[in-house]
Every structure is written in C-alpha cells, then in structure tokens.
Design goal:
The chain is built from 5 helices and no strands. By secondary structure, it is mainly alpha-helical. It starts with 5 loop residues before the first helix and ends in a 12-residue tail after the last helix.
Length: about 160
C-alpha cells in the first residue's frame, strides 16, 4: 500500500488523538456517574445516572471506539509502523479488542439492564468492573503510545 504524506499523516494522527481524547473523557464521565450511582439513595439520581451512561454508551462510546480503531489501523497500515512490526502496537491491538468488547457491548448492555431496578446491584457490579477495565486499558494504550516499549519484532509480518 502506498504510504501517505507527512501532512496526511498529521491529519490522521490528529483525528486519532481527538477520538482517543473523547474515549478518555467519556470514561471520566462513566467513573463519576458510576460512583454517584453507587452512593446515592435517591431513585431519581440513580435513574438519571444510568440513563446518561446508557446514552453515552449508545453514542460517544461507540463513535469514539470506532473512530479510534479505524484511524489507528489506517495509521499502522499507511505508515512505516505496520500492524505487527512492533510489540507496543500489538499490545495496543489486544487492548483495542478489549475496549471494543467492553465499550460497544458491555457498557451498553450493563447500563440498559441497570435501568431495571429489580436487578440493579448485580448489573452495577458488572458495570463498575467494566468501567475499571475500560479505564485501565485506555490509560495503558496512552502509555504505550507515548513510550513505545518493547521495540521492533525480530521477524515482523509484512503488515
């Protein structure tokens, strides 16, 4: 595949960073809303927290996860980084799969089920575990992007 110009790479990188920033911002909102839901005795506040989390899971989480994934793949394929040449990229790919599973499927389902007050505690526990795993995976992806540990693989695939 033909490599992109420096200007095109910068635009693609900017889009990737914007989508990643949205992901991190939404995670902060999930932490705040999840903790609020954990400590409130007010049914209206609890309902509001879950409604907002469900709305975010259905919109911002999906858009930012898809956008970050697509721009990340494009950056890997269209630049010299490649998909499998560096250990840090492979680690980010694994964490991306985790983020997709938790973000696109887990958060949506757990917040939807959390809106049913009869099973709130069970689903709230899973939601909080999902929020923690999602937050850790996003922070680790940021760390990998900055420090790029592990170096280049000895026998990388062509991609």
């Amino acid at each position: 595949m033909k490599k992109i110009t420096l200007q095109q790479r910068r635009i693609l990188l900017l889009l990737h960073i914007i989508f990643a920033a949205i992901m991190l911002g939404v995670q902060v909102a999930f932490i705040i809303l999840g903790l609020t839901a954990s400590v409130t005795d007010d049914a209206d506040v609890l309902q509001s927290c879950y409604t907002i989390m469900h709305l975010l899971a259905d919109t911002s989480v999906r858009a930012s996860t898809i956008g970050t994934t697509i721009t990340g793949i494009m950056l890997s394929v269209m630049t010299s980084w490649g998909l499998f040449r560096y250990y840090w990229i492979i680690a980010k790919e694994v964490l991306t799969l985790l983020a997709i599973g938790i973000g696109l499927i887990g958060m949506y389902e757990w917040t939807l089920r959390g809106l049913d007050h009869g099973t709130l505690t069970v689903h709230h526990t899973w939601l909080m575990i999902g929020i923690a795993l999602q937050t850790i995976s996003i922070v680790v992806m940021y760390i990998l992007s900055v420090w790029k540990p592990g170096g280049k693989r000895k026998n990388p695939a062509s991609l």
